[in-house]
Amino acid sequence: MARLLHTGDVHLGVKLSGLGRAGDKVRASLKSAFSKMIDTAISEQVDAFLIAGDLFDSNRISSSLVRFTLSEIERLGNIPCVILPGTHDCLEEGSVYLSLSQSDKPSNLHILMDRDTPFIRFDDRGLVIYGMPNVARTSTTNPIASVSRQDLPGCHVLMAHGSYMIPGKTSPDDHPFSLDDIENSGFDYIAVGHWHSAFVLPTTRVKAAYCGSPETIAFDQSGAGHYYLVDTSGGVHVDKRRVGKTEWMELDLSAASFKYTIELERELSKHAGEDKLLRVRLSGLASSDSFVNLEELHEHLSDKFLSLSVSDRTETVPDDLKGLNLPPTTILGQFISIVSESVETATDPEEKQLYTESLKTGFAMLSGKDVL
Fold it and tell me: What was the pLDDT predicted at 107?
């Protein structure tokens, strides 16, 4: 049987707009992750290096990036590298794969581009690799059910780039497939790409897994940064390996917890790291006497993160709401009058504080402010 390295969704050349210089570092990390996986394939002497779609972020990439990628693949030597065109680098007119001349390609590079004969035989390795190339960003074509296992000896592995159908989540034109498609496929292993979090699909007869992206490229990709080493001898075993370097994190913080800049600075410093991208949302009611200077905060902390952004969604409320003298005939006026009286008559300090906070929060909400 066979040993494989399964990756995909590398997205070399991704734009990452809005990250500035940090985007350059993330793109460099993507190239580094790709090189590390090549190193692993060589050291582990796998039988094939599989890229299950979206090696490139688009079909419009620089020639220097193409040269880098081909030179890395060439380092594999006699280990075959098999690429399946995905959704970002689909086999459309102007495809990066169609632009490669035979002399450009290393001898060990194989690209699944024939939709009529969607498989490649490696008889010397007892291996047959299948895959239906994507020809558009969206399609209702099932990438698993549209490929049939051939009556050939050896280990049969299918690469597919599409979405596992989940009611209410999966779009019908996102190259959908079901668990039944996997179970009834007859393949020994299905190497799936498209979703950026690595996980094994819940099947019983046929093992299938999303490799995820080898490097995180967005804040909502909690399971990215991995690839799989697959061993098909004595059953199919998948070993998830970490390769990603960057960590993307989002924090939602209440403005009421921070009166001064230094307090917020101390909190954010707990998460500092040279490979950390941190996005903070500061919201809720801020005290009228608070002083948090976000420009000063960024000046002090920016060199402690790969990227740091803080969005200020805080609201402030006047201390003397009763002094606003709002008409008692309005809901807001009645609310202030009733709760202010509770503040004034409360004798327990904790109870007084609770009424005070309720007064400010209620005023903000009734004024149309988003404080929760």
Answer: 96
Identify the CATH class of 3-242.
alpha beta
Q: How far is Cα 179 from Cα 37, in angstroms, rounded to an integer?
A: 29
Mean pLDDT of 329-358: 75
13 within 8 A of 27, measured Cβ to Cβ: yes
Burial-class residue 233 by CB neighbours within 10 Å (0-12, 13-18, 19+): exposed
Instruction: Kindly state the DSSP code that residue 11 receives in the 8-state scheme.
Output: -
Give the SS3 label for residue 129. Answer: strand
Tokens linked to 183:
């179970």
Least Cα distance to 52 among 14, 9, 97, 3 occurs for: 9
Domain boundaries, the chain: 3-242, 246-316, 319-372
Q: Which of 109, 100, 90 is nearest to 49 (CA)?
A: 109
Tens digits of per-residue pLDDT, 267-306?
A: 999 999 999 999 999 887 776 667 888 899 999 999 999 9
